[in-house]
């Protein structure tokens, strides 16, 4: 078995290839940037480059993309070129070369405006059935690329699984006001309740998708840490997140107090990973309970894989007002 991994110099691509190497699974990594886990440097927009790299591949894991941090620094056309035309190149050539299945890394950002409830409304329970409502060109192109995957399954019988990942980046939050309110680890710990996944869990989900794709055919899966919340919590999460979390984790207030940390005043959405756990057999390790246990014992709650990969950033240059510029 040979797996072609796009975006192999990025966070997730590197994580996947590190695991493939540890399991002695044959693979090829491609990226526009050179790196220790990239076999061939080139763009997925270059069809001839993709054609050469696709030869001999049994599966494709497509993580390469322009991200939300690029919205303020790249044109809409560049997003269309990379996220759409690049994905189309990969799908067409995967079909041509007889690839057995195609795994596409998408994002919960495609839900866009669906993630913000109106004042007085409960938090949003986000499953794979939630409607896409993109807020920017990033979300638009990721949604359209998902549709391309569905089309290639429908019309060409190419098994395609779409993994809609929540936050796994180690960089600071892109919102200046949020960065000023919370220590970075404090904020990330809070996010494990509803909108973050450890990169190790995310990478393993992709490899499970490779194993299951031919049998499943087509499917979309939210890849986020298992939330402790139920639909009964949604109203209270908008009014008193601290109280809801304390009810689920009675030891949390004391642990946070010892760290000088604080909980979010409200939580506006909950990502539900049940479908991925059932259909892919995914068992994410890193959740809020794990975070609390690590804090109790004085350990870093990041996975070893996450720590060794570290922060990569999204731009070659630095910016005055944060880790990257943001534009919706």
Automatic annotation (TrEMBL):
InterPro entries in the record: Epimerase_deHydtase (IPR001509), Lipid_A_modif_metabolic_enz (IPR050177), NAD(P)-bd_dom_sf (IPR036291)
Stretches that traverse the bilayer: none
Sequence ranges assigned to domain NAD-dependent epimerase/dehydratase in this UniProt record: 3-212
Protein known as: NAD-dependent epimerase/dehydratase family protein
